[in-house]
Design goal:
The structure is a single chain. The protein is α/β, with parallel strands linked by helices and 207 residues long. It has eight helices and seven strands; from the N terminus they run βαβαααββααβαβαβ. The protein has a seven-stranded mixed β-sheet, sandwiched between helices. Strand 3 and strand 4 form a beta hairpin. The C terminus is likely disordered.
């Protein structure tokens, strides 16, 4: 019921695929909530053209009171498909890991699960910070997005280590590719540059 999307780094298409799955599922008649849980570098505002400065999930996570009804005021209803709503990440906080470790996350998921058929979580790249590993405790399924011709072999080894160490459970892999015929091989070209400027290097766990 709660499906989280992550990847190793930026540019692999996790937000795009998570968003399309949410819309497609809503078009099948299900009630779907897409939640922005990449609270360091939110992308849903850009993708769905709403105010990037609007309040969102972080306002609830930072609230002193455990008022789950606050979530109803933060959820944005869309006209893209009946039953498709978005809970944006909201204002970027100074303490993201602390907020995501709080019990408010469990309370939010429990409350939202009673209102929606599916909750899709767009989380941070797991190769850059530990946020997604923290969030995985509330997810039923994790979807790891790799991109053909972009994701390096080292990234796949890193992913395997997460699974083998039990840090990610119930994992599926989505291979993202715009044109299979053009993607001949996996390489390391530009590998290091993909980790620069994302805003995650201070807490990166990918060596």
């Amino acid at each position: 019921k709660i499906i989280m999307f992550t990847s190793t780094t930026s540019g692999e298409g996790k937000t795009f695929i998570a968003s399309n799955l949410a819309v497609s599922t809503a078009l099948m008649g299900k009630k779907v909530l897409l939640v922005g849980m990449d609270i360091r570098r939110p992308r849903l505002a850009e993708m769905f053209k709403f105010d990037p400065k609007a309040e969102g999930l972080t306002s609830y996570l930072a609230a002193d009171e455990k008022d789950v009804a606050m979530l109803d005021r933060l959820i944005l209803h869309t006209d893209i498909a009946d039953g498709f709503d978005i809970l944006p990440a909201g204002i970027v906080p100074p303490n993201p890991a602390e907020l995501l470790s709080a019990v408010n996350v469990e309370r939010a998921m429990e409350y939202l699960s009673s209102k929606y058929d599916y909750i899709i979580l767009d989380t941070a790249p797991v190769g850059l910070v530990s946020d997604s590993l923290i969030i995985s405790r509330v997810a039923d399924v994790a979807v790891y997005v790799v991109r053909l011709g972009y994701t390096g072999k080292y990234d796949l080894a890193f992913f395997n280590s997460l699974v083998n160490d039990g840090k990610l459970e119930n994992v599926s892999v989505v291979v993202n590719c715009d044109d299979v015929a053009k993607k001949k091989s996996y390489g390391y070209s530009g590998y290091a540059n993909r980790y620069v400027g994302y805003g995650y290097t201070s807490e990166g766990n990918h060596k």
